[in-house]
Structures are given as structure tokens and as C-alpha cells.
Amino acid sequence: MKLILDEEQAALLKTARQFMDERSPVSRVRELRDSADATGFSRALWKRMAELGWVGLNLPEAYGGSELGLFELCLILEAGGRNLCPEPFLSTVVLGAGALMAAGTDAQKAAWLPRVAEGDAIVALASDEANSRYDVCAIEARAELDGDGYRLSGEKSQVLDGHVADLLIVSARTAGGRSDREGVTLFLVEAGTPGLSVTRQSRVDGRNAAIVTLESVEVGPGALLGAPGAGCALLETLRQRAAAAVSAEMLGLASAAYEQTLAYLKERVQFGVPIGSFQALQHRAARLFIELELARSSVLAAARAADDDPAAFPELAALAKARASELVIHVTNEAVQMHGGIGMTDELDIGFYMKRARATAVAFGDASFWRTRWADLRGY
Amino acid sequence: MALDEAFGDEVRRWLEEHAPRSLRGTRRGRFDGFWGGRKATGVDPDVLRWRDMMAERGFTAPTWPRQYGGAGLSAADARTLDQELARLGLPPAVVGFGLTMIGPTLLDYGTEAQKRRHLPAICRGEIRWCQGYSEPQAGSDLASLRTRAVPDGDAFVVDGQKVWTSYADLSDWIFCLVRTDPAAKKQQGITFLLIDMETPGVTARRIALISGASPFCEVFLEGVRVPRAQVVGEVNGGWTVAKALLGYERSMIGEAIGGQLATSEAQLVSGARRHLGAAAGPLPDPSLRDAIVRNAMDERAFALTIERARQGVQSGRAPGPESSIMKVAGSELKQRRWELAVRIAGPAGLGWEGPGFAADDLEATREWLRSRANTIEGGTSEIQLDILARRVLGLPSGKEAGR
Predict the structure, then answer these.
(1) CA torsion sign, B40 to B43 to B45 to B47?
(2) 3-class SS of residue A146
(3) Structural domain boundaries enclosing A203
(4) If pLDDT is split at 50, 70 and 90, which confidence band does B203 have?
(5) Tens-digit pLDDT profile for residues A158-202
(6) Do A237 and A342 sit in the same domain of this protein?
(7) For a designed S-S bond to A186, which of A97, A215, A225, B72 qualifies (C-beta 3.0 to 4.6 A apart)?
(8) How far, in Å, CA of B90 to CA of B61, rounded?
(9) What is the ipTM of this complex?
(10) What residues 257-316 of chain A have any CB closer than 8 A to a CB of chain B?
(11) Are residue A117 and residue A173 in the same domain, yes or no?
């Protein structure tokens, strides 16, 4: 399995790094937070990313995409992760477009994917509920047959980018009880559908999430995404892909927090010497470096397997997400500690990294969730 | 690509036709095989035949130049060869510190005469080498070594003591760091010497370890006369050679550990099933289950990192920072693995020898104890972290900073 970048991939990563440094420095995330921006990211920048081909990266050419793999998308996510870029890659590209590609009809795909690729449509997956934790099948929202359509009721929580989504992919039970694997069905629900209300939530990472409430929302038969009752399998597939993708973002996040900390160890003087000359700190910095390298190999392997080796992908996705989740917590905890008092201040960017680290570590299953998944896959 | 495949096909056919049947399926790792040397007795004739046929083609040191007994293969072809050996479960035909440590160092720093004398003998496993680095007063601070070599005509006379010399009692030659200029700064008065262990004044003695069996020896050097022609590099310039060799040693240790990883998860799971009485299904002890997963994930990540480093080098890049983590990450991984094996065994892991204990559990106990040395030998983890911090991370040294 190829674990290094070819020339085109290296060039893509370089372009993405430059773009993020020029157009999306961390100060932008701070401004969005401080101004309580209603969107929480920049539509203009998203449009620009679409023009660069990044939004439709994984989509077929017929829908305006460039048919590249998750590996390439991960390079962009890594570059974005370094600067905490808040644009809706995970919601719209990985989950939203991913769901449409995996289960959508030609009509559904034709209606939405070109708009996604152009940066005009935001898509969100409204599936998790307040008590779901990491169980994708733990769904209590209901969908009742109503003529040839359905009537949806329930409440979804922490829907990524739900507050600005043009299209919501909603999970609801057409059969079964709370955690049953069978009986979950997915629906496409457009923003503005009567009975649908969206309330923005405030999270520790400042990132966009919303409560989506459905009160007898009527949808037609064309809203069904995939076969009725078979939604859990699709949700699991999406989560696996999202786990690999967010691991790339986490790798970027951890690398940047680490580099900032290493620079601080070299410049901060106490007792007349740079604190980076103290062995206690040197060894901890070296250990973080080792963890970063091991995580990097895992993330690269998972992204590559997503494209080239589907049989190996489940294990490697578990490996990448478990490692990256522990990595980001470890690195950002150490980053704050090694910066000392200044690390606790809001003035420094490190706090933003720490908060985003926590959010990504929890997203799509935390480290122990994915370790359990590994044991299940390996038959023990 | 076509050339690589042609080589692979040719080697596969040759091995399938000629490799001794008795050795197929006996491979344990890339560094587990015939150690050779003048003291090797009672060796299986098939092992010798295997050594002869492989050495004949230069395949015991595939990347070394042909004139010194190698096959002059590219790194890619050498890997193909190794994969073919692994596929048939064939052990390497010759192993040892000649091939992994002193040989590569001589290729870099040896005189033409030294290369011609020593490299072909290493390739054929005729001479077994050991490493005379550490001393009782010079462990992590290796450069403070005290073994003295005093010029006397066309020779040096060596007096001192080496310690932790693996397999010194089974070896024929020792590569040795000695002090030739006691007045110079400590790194600058060191010379790298090759010494025949049969020279009068050399004695080796085994050291008993906490794990029982031990490859480690003390080597005593008393008035040992060593011709000047056996200096590698410059007199008083041995530290440069010594560090180059340590680089080879570190990569060997990393690779050796990488090769042992493949089966550990299955062994730990089967141990857990046996000791927990759970033949199938999820292991009933969730904490042990999680520990086994952590170990398996660490191993997978480590193996992937070795592979990534290899691909980077193969694509023409200088060894990247990932290669500098191998020794510390690999040795700690190995420790955690055996620690976990003993933890899984519970009371059954307390066996030392004799009846009442399963062979697997006895092995785990000995390996657990032995593995405690992994983070000490070949440069302690603390020294590796120092090296990483200074050379890779560019952090200032405490001394330079004026402490």
C-alpha cells in the first residue's frame, strides 16, 4: 500500500496549505466567533474552494466533480485542519454528498450533486439525537406512512452545519425500537419544508451545529433515500468514511499545535535559557513527535485504503480514528501545559486548537469506540 | 517494473527448485538464522548447503557490491528477494552483526584491504562478529570509555574491559572502541579497532541476567597487540565511525522488531481465550480486550511507519524523521507486548521452569524479563529521545544553553 504522496498529490497538498495560510488563517475562526457570525463560515470562500475543485473532488464528472479519491480530500482536510478551517467539508462533502452517492437515485443525484460541487448547496446529515452517543442506530424519530409519502416527527441534535443546510438527510424509524438495526429509513428534507425548524447550537469548538425539530413534516415518495428500513448500514458506512476524513483534519490540527509549541519551547526563556533546553520538556516533545508520526502513517493508510483496498478499510479507519483521537487530546493538553499561563489565555490560538481537538475526538466515535470496533472486526 | 518482475520470477523459480525442503516454513524473522563463525559446530548440513547456495549468488548480502561477496542488487530487488524467502518460509541463510553492523560500516569507512579481507567472510558466515562498545563506566555516556590503546611499533597494545557484548563467547572478531588520546576531548581521542578474539589477552565471560539465559558477555582485554592495519577510519577519528555504526544498529533493531509483530495479536488473543476460558465471542474481560487492541493498533501503526519510511527512501528521499523514531517506538512496543502477555497469563505467568506451566506462558515470562533490556541496549530510550529532541526537533542542548 502506497503511503507516500505522488507528485500530483504533493502539489495538491502544497496548494491547499498555501491557500489555507493566505485565505484562512486561524484569526478568521476567531473573528467568526467574536462577531457571532450567523453562518459560521464564509460562503464566498466555500465558493472559491468549489472553483478549485475541492468541493466536488470525490464526485463523478457528470455532476461537476473531478472523480478523485478520499486520499486527495484528506490532503485538503489536513491542510484545513492546520488552520481550523470551518468550511462545511464534513457535512456537505463527506456525509451529505457521500450519502447521495451511496444511496441516491439518479434524479436525487442530478438534483443536488451539481449544486454541491459548485459550492451552492449545503447538505447536512440530521441523524444523531440527544441520547444517541455513538450508536448510529439509536434513533427515536418516527416516520409514519401517509398516503404514498411519509410524515416525520422527532428531534435531531448537533446536526453539523444544519442551521444553513439547503438539504437535510434525516433518519427516522419506520419500524423497530430505539437501537434496533432494522427499521431506520433516510429521507431528503429540503430547508423550509413546513414543520421543520432549525435552532443553532453553541458548542465548545464554536463550530456550526443545530437542533433540527420535525413536527409532522410531510415528504413525498421521492424523498426516500435508499431502501426503507435499511438506513443503519448506510449510516455506518458514512460514519466510517467520515472517521477517516476527520482523522486527516485532526492530523493537521495536531501538527500545527505541535509546531507552535515547539517554536515556543525554542523562544521562551526562563532561568536564563530557552525552556526547550530542559530535558523534561525535550523528552515530552520527542514523544509527541513519535505519536504524530505513528498517527500520520495510520491516517495515510486509512485514506489510501478507502480508495484502493476496501477490504482493509474498516480496520484502518478504526486505527486512524482511534489514534488521531488520542493524539489530538494529548498534543493539545501538552501544548497548553508547555505554554504555561499564556496557554490558558484566549489571546493565544492554542485554546482554539484544544477545543476543536475535543470536538473532533468525539466526532463519529471516540478512541475507545473505535478500539471496540477493531476487536469486533478481528473476531475477539 | 518489468525488470523487477523478471528478477522476482527468476528468484522464485530458483528458490523453489533449490532451497532445502527441510528449511521451508522454518523462518522466524529477518534476523533469525545461521550465525556462523569458527565456533559453530554440529550445524545441520542443510543449513550449510543453504548458506553455500545463497552465498554463491551473493544473496546473503544482496545489496553489497559483487567484488565483496554481495549481489549488487538495488534496494527494491533485495526486498523482492526477502519477500520470496518469506513466502517460502525460508530463514535468511546467514545472520549476524557482520551483515547488519560492521559490514555496512566497512563499506563506508574501511580500507580496500579491510573490505577484501572481512566482507567475503561475513557474506559466507565464516567469521562471527561482536560489538565492543559499552564499558562498566561508559554506558549511555559511551564517549567516556576508558579502554586504552597505546602505540607500539606497527601495533597498538590494548588494555581494558568491555561489557554487554552480545555473544562475545561465540564470536571470532570484535569491533572495538578504544581510547588512543587520553588528553583530547573525549569524542576526539577514540579509535575504531578490529580485533581477532583469538589474539592473546582476550577473554570473554557470560553475564547472568534476570531472564536467566543471556547472550551478554564481559570481554577482558589485557596487553592485546592489534596491528595498525586493523584501525577503521583515522586514528583518533573513531567516533565518526562509531556513530555511523550506531545508525545501522538502530535501524536493524527497528526492522527486527517490525518483523516480529505480525503474529502478536493472534498469540495474545489465543492466550486470553485460554486463560479466560472463552473459546469464542468477545473476550469477557473488556479491559484485557482493550489492552490487546491497543497493542495491535500500536503494532499496525508502527509497521505502517516502517513501510512509509522504506517507501520514502526507495523513492529517493533522504531518511525522513520517521526513521529516527524506530528504536524507541519499537523497543517500547515490544515491552508492552510481553508485559501484556504476562498480564493475560495471570498466576500462570509466574512460572520459571519445570512442570505445571505451559510452554507459551514460560516463554512469555522469560520474554517479559528479557524485553526490559530492549529500551536499554543499543542506546537507552532516554538517549534516543535526546537525539530526537536535538537532531530532529532542533531543541537546544542544556549544555549549549549554559546550564
Answers:
(1) negative
(2) strand
(3) 124-229
(4) very high
(5) 999 999 999 999 999 999 998 899 999 999 999 999 999 999 999
(6) yes
(7) A225
(8) 16
(9) 0.96
(10) 262, 265-266, 272-274, 276-279, 281-283, 285-287, 289-290, 293-298, 300-301, 315
(11) no
A285 and B393 in contact by Cβ < 8 A?
A: yes
How do residues A322-338 score in pLDDT, each as one tens digit?
999 999 999 999 999 99
Structural domain count, chain A? 3
Among residues A83, A60, A71, A78, the alpha carbon closest in space to that of A2 is found at A71
- Of B79, B47, B52, B48, the C-alpha closest to B63 is B79
B321 interfacial to chain A (CB closer than 8 Å): yes
| Residue indicated by cell numbers 485538503 | A76
Domains of chain B: 2-95 (1.10.540.10), 129-235 (2.40.110.10), 261-392 (1.20.140.10)
Angle, helices B286-314/B75-87, rounded to nearest 10 degrees: 140
For residues A327 and A175, give the distance between their C-alpha atoms in angstroms, rounded to a whole number: 39
Low-confidence stretches of chain A (pLDDT beneath 50) = none
Taking the CA of residue A283 as centre, how many other CA atoms within 13 Å lie in the half-sphere pointing to its CB? 8
A1 found inside a domain: no
> Chain A closest CA to B308's CA: distance in Å?
5
Average pLDDT over residues B363-369: 93
CB pairs under 8 A between A and B: 130
Question: Based on the domain organization, do A27 and A103 belong to the same domain?
Answer: yes
Phi-psi region of B152 (alpha: psi -120 to 50; beta: other; left: phi over 0): beta
Residue B233 to residues A235, B112, B113, B159, B191, Cα–Cα distance (Å):
64, 12, 13, 21, 8
Cell of B190: 577514540
- Clarify whether residues A284 and A362 are in a common domain: yes
Say yes or no: A344 and A371 in one domain: yes
Told to judge if B135 belongs to the known catalytic residues of this protein, a careful annotator would answer: no
B175 touches chain A (CB under 8 A): no
The x, y and z cell numbers of residue B86, run together, are: 518469506
